[in-house]
Amino acid sequence: MYKKRGFDKRYLFILVVIAIALVLVVLAVSLQKDRDLNPIEKVAKDIGTVVLKVVSAPFNFVHDSIEEMIEKDNVYEKYKELKNKEEQIDSVVSQNDNLRSEIDKLKDTLELNTVLSDKVFLNATVVSRNIGYWYEEVTIDKGLKNGIEKDMAVVTPKGLIGKITKVSNYSSTVQLLSNDHMSDKISVKIKTKDDYVYGLISMYDSKTNTYTVEGISENEEITEGADVVTTGMGTVFPSGLMIGKVKKVTTDNFDLSKVAEVEASVNFDDLDYVTVLKRVSN
Fold first, then answer.
1. Which CATH class is domain 119-177+266-282?
2. 47-66 pLDDT, tens per residue?
3. Which of 41, 68, 235, 246 could join 226 via S-S bond, C-beta 3.0 to 4.6 A?
């Protein structure tokens, strides 16, 4: 009986050797730099290039997108860091401005203490101010334990602001000159060319930060910008405390006396540090 012969392994070996030889020949030829590509190699190379582009395009897109996202995240983080630093700088600048203002006010107060050498003075800080009574009174952090007494004059480096009306052991209430209910009219004098003329403060206008001074002699010449200070008459305010400067001069309704509009030297909206005074004789 005839038997079908199987594939001889020797032929397989020969085929493998021939394939390897062909590959080696192709490689040897392709390694020649100056050799021109044959048509088959050109087609194969072109096809490989196109296939490589098509296959790599999605990967390149994903890679570029990831790189872009990472770069955006880095830029945003740097932005947040710079923004935070900017806010910190603004905060520091604001704090420095506030501290500089506080230092200037304290320097002014110390200078005032030197100028008022003939008075007994007590420095104090405004600790409370009611919005509803903004122009009427403030509370300071000095009281009976610090030698504060009722009716003592209270000033800032800019001038007179009021007097003590209520006193507890560790705090006091200051009635301001801007108070519409000031019980007693304040006697003041206005500097003229050769002397002073006298009058009384009758009211304060918070909108213009001015006092109205009445009772000035009709015959007196008063110039704009003239200093207005306390006379020292009475038992509360010493002489020479600054009130303000003359802004305008008119006559009263009966043309019998002059009325001066005086711009206050003190800004009643900005009271932080004050000095409480009393006469040496007290």
1. mainly beta
2. 555 555 555 566 566 666 77
3. 246
- 3-class DSSP string for the chain: CCCCCCCCHHHHHHHHHHHHHHHHHHHHHHCCCCCCCCHHHHHHHHHHHHHHHHHHHHHHHHHHHHHHHHHHHHHHHHHHHHHHHHHHHHHHHHHHHHHHHHHHHHHHHHHHHHHCCCEEEEEEEEEECCHHHCCCEEEECCCHHHCCCCCCEEEECCEEEEEEEEECCCCEEEEECCCCCCCCCEEEEEECCCCEEEEEEEEEECCCCEEEEEEEECCCCCCCCCEEEECCCCCCCCCCCEEEEEEEEEECCCCCEEEEEEEECCCCCCCCEEEEEEECCC
pTM over 0.85: no
- Under CATH, domain 185-264 is a member of which superfamily? Rod shape-determining protein MreC, domain 2 (2.40.10.350)
C-alpha distances in angstroms, 125 versus 67, 108, 172?
60, 14, 11
Residue 117 pLDDT: 45
